[in-house]
Fold these 2 entries.
Entry 1:
Amino acid sequence: MRRPLIPRKLAPCLRALPALAGLALLTGCWLDGRQSTFDVKGPVARAQLDLFMVTVYVTAVIFVVVGAVLAYAMIKFRARTAADERAEPPPQGHGNFLVEIGLVSASVLCLVIIAVPTLKNIWFTYEVPDVQRANAYEITATGYQWWFKFEYPAEQIDGVGPLVTGNELVIPAGRPVRVNLRTVDVIHSFWVPKLAGKVDMIPNRANHLWLQADQPGYYYGQCAEFCGDSHAIMRFRVIALGEKEFALWRANQEQPARSVAPATADAERKPRAVFASFTTHPGAALSGSAEFDADPFAAWQEKQRPDPAGENPALAAQGRRLFQEKTCIACHTIRGHEGVGVAGPDLTHVGARTTIAAGTLENTPQRMHDWIADPNHFKPGNKMFNGGYTDPATGRRLIVLNETEIDALVAYLQSLK
Ligand code: CUA
C-alpha cells in the first residue's frame, strides 16, 4: 500500500495556510501598523528595510533550493513497500568533491551578498552623511525608568540652559536629526520603527544615531531594551514639522509656562498667536481615541492651541497652589512657575502634548485625572507613585489627593500649552 506523502491529519492545516496568508495580506494588518518597519518614512529606516529584504531574498533562495532537494530525496527514495522497509540501507559513500566545493562556494557567495550592503549600512546609519552634516539638527535623548527626556542644545534659554521636553520629540522634517543617546539609570533603547533604530542608551557610554522624517507627521517610538517593570509601556512620539512650524514650536516652547491665574488673566490669557498658522481641524476633538487615532498629527496641532474659553482660571490657580503643596514641584520643572525638580518630565508645556505617562495615555483631562489618581495602575513601578505618593520602604501613603484636588491639578496642567 502506498503511504500518503503528508500525514492525513496535517493536510487540512497545510491547505489553510495560503488562505491565512491571503487574509493577512487583505486586511493589511501587518505592513502599515504604527510601529511597522515595512512602512518606512525616512532614509535610515529605508536603508534598514532594503538590507532586511536582501537577507530575505537570499534566505528565500536557500530555502527553496534546500527544500526542493530535500523533497526530491524524500519522494524518490522513500520506502514504497514492506520489503523496502526491511531492506538494508544502500552503500554509504563519503561525499562528492564537486558537490562539497559547490556548497562551500555558494555559502560564501550568499554571505558576501549579505555582507556588502550590511557593511555599507553600518556606516550609513552610524553618522549623518558628510554632504548633509552641516544641515543636521542635534538633540539629546535620555532614558529614565520609564520615560524619555529630550534636550535641544541648539535652543539655549537665558539663565536656564537648553530647551527640555518629555516624551514627545519634535523634529524638523526633511532634515537629518542627530540624536545623542544617554541614560540616567539602566540600559534603554531608542527606536522609532518608521524612522530609525534601534540603538541602546547605555550608562557611561555616549551612543548616538541619526534619523530623518521625509514628511511632516506623527510617528510612534518605543524603548526596545528590557528595562524593568514598565519597559513595554516606555513609549514616546516623534512629531516632524515643516521648517516654519518647527521654528514656531520652538519659539513657543522657549516661553515660560503659560499663566491663567485670575491676577494675571488680562496679561497672559491671550491665545498665543504663534500657532495661528497651523491648520485648523475643527473636528479634531481629543476626547475620543478613535478620532485621535484617525489623525494624530491633526490632534497634535490642535493640542498646541490654548483654549481660554474652556478654561477655569480659579480652578487652575488652585491647581497651581496644589502643585506646590503636594510636593509635585520636587520632581517636575514648570519653568516660570514653581516647579524645579528634574526627577520627572519637564511639564512647562505639558498641556500641549498628545500623550501623558510616556506615550501610554492620550492627554485628555479625563485620562490625566485617571493618571494622577492612580499612576501605579497605568505604569507599575513608576517613581511618581513609588517614592512620591508612597514610601516604598514602608508602603506608607505620603500624598493623598481627593477628586476636587485632582480636578484642580488637571485644570492647571492642561492650561500649560
Ligand atoms: Cu526603557 Cu525598556
Entry 2:
Amino acid sequence: MSYQLNKDKIIDILKANENLSHIKDVDSLLDHVLYEARTITNADAGSIYLKKGEKLSFEYVQNDTLMKKDSSSNKHIYKKQEIPINNESIAGYAALNKTDVMIDDVYQLGRNVPYTFNRSFDESSSYHTQSILTVPLMTTREKLIGVMQIINAKDERGRVLPFSQYDKHLVALFANQAASAIERAQMTREIILRMIKIAEMRDPEETGPHVNRVGAICIEIYQRWAARNRVQSSEIKKVKDILRISAMLHDVGKVAISDAILKKKSRLSNKEREIMKFHTVYGARLFKESDSDWDDMAAEIALNHHEKWNGTGYPGYIRDIYNDTISIGPGKKGHEIPLPARIVALADVYDALMSNRSYKNPWPEEKVIDFISAEKHKHFDPELVDTFMEIYDIIKAIREKYSH
Ligand code: C2E
Ligand code: SIN
Ligand code: SIN
Ligand code: FE
Ligand code: FE
C-alpha cells in the first residue's frame, strides 16, 4: 500500500471527524458515523449497537445491497433487538472485552472462539454476511458507548473480501472520535426528552412513545419527499438532523393549558376548544426566545402543525405571537404552511387516531388509512399523503419499535 494512499485516507478521517462535531441529533450522527466507517473500508453494510444499561441495543443499520433491492429496506433500521454484553455474540464479546474482532467469514468461525454468529438478520433479510470488523465505541475517557460492526469489505469489482489490519487501525482511530460525539448527542437528546417529560406530566396522553413515533415518522416522510423532489443530499442531512427533535416538541405548548381542559375525559366544548388552540402559539413562544439550531424549525412546527391544506386549520397568520390579545384567524393554506409543519400534521393525526386518548379509543388501522386518504387535499398535503402511503411498511415498523 502506498504512502500516498495512507495519507489521503487519514486526511479523510480527519475531515470526517471535523463533521462529527456539527451534528446534533443522535440518529443523524449514527448515520454519518456508519457511512464514514464504511467509506474508509469500502464495506457493503454495517450496524451500530448502543449500550443501554447492561445490554447492547441495536440502533442503526446501513446496507447497500438490501437498499438497492428494496428502497423500503429502511424498515430494518427500526428492528428491535437487545443483546447481553457477554461472550456469546460477536458484538457482546467486543463490548465485554473492549477489543476489536475481525472475522474473514462468519459462517466459518474457528473452534476456539466463545461467540457464535447470530444469523437472524441474514435470515429475515436474505442477506449474506461474510467478513466482519467489529469495534467497541469508547470515549477518550474509556467509557463504552456501544459497538460498531462493519460488514462485507469489497474490492473494486464488488467482490466480498476480508478486512485488512490496515482497515482495522483506520476504523479504530475513527471510532474513538465518533464515540465522544455520540455521547454528546445522547446528552442533548436526554435533555430534550426531559423537557418532553415535563410536558407529559401535564398531558398524560402526549407520551414518550407518541412523540418518538411522530419524530421518526416525520423523518421518513421527509426523506422520501426529498428524494421525489431531488433535494440535495447535504440539505436532506441538515433537515433530518433538526426535524426529528423539532417534531417531537410539536405539542410542548400544551404545558400552558389548564388541567381542566387538558385532562378532560370527554369531548371539549367549543369554548374549551378555542382555548386549546392556543397551545400552538404558546409552543412557538418557547422556542422563539432562544437560539439553538433547531429553534426556528421547532417554533415553525409548534405554530403551524394544526393548519390544514385547504385553509380550515388554525391558528392562521399571527402578526405578533407575544401579543396578549391574539385572535385565532383564518387558516393558512397549501404551501403557505411550512413543509415541516405539513409533515408533522400528518404524522401527528395518524398517530393520535391509532392511539388511545382520554377522550377517544384507538381507531382500527383500516379506518385511519381511509380517513387519511379522504383528507388528502383537505387536511393534508396531497403529495405527503402519497409519500406516506408509499412508505407505509416503514411507518408500521416504527409503530412496533416505539410501542410502549
Ligand atoms: P391530540 O389528541 O394529540 O390530537 C391531535 C390531532 O389529531 C387533533 O387536533 C385532530 O386533528 C386529530 N384527532 C385526534 N383525535 C381525533 C378524533 O377522534 N377524530 C378526528 N377526526 N380527529 C382526531 P385537534 O382536533 O386540533 O386537537 C388538538 C388537541 O386538543 C388534541 O391533541 C387534544 O390534546 C385536544 N383535544 C381535541 N379534542 C379534544 C376532546 O374532545 N377532548 C379532550 N379532552 N381533548 C381534546
Ligand atoms: C379534526 O381536526 O378534528 C380532524 C380532521 C378533520 O375532520 O378535518
Ligand atoms: C395500506 O393499505 O395499509 C397502506 C397503503 C399502502 O401501503 O399502499
Ligand atoms: Fe397539537
Ligand atoms: Fe401530538
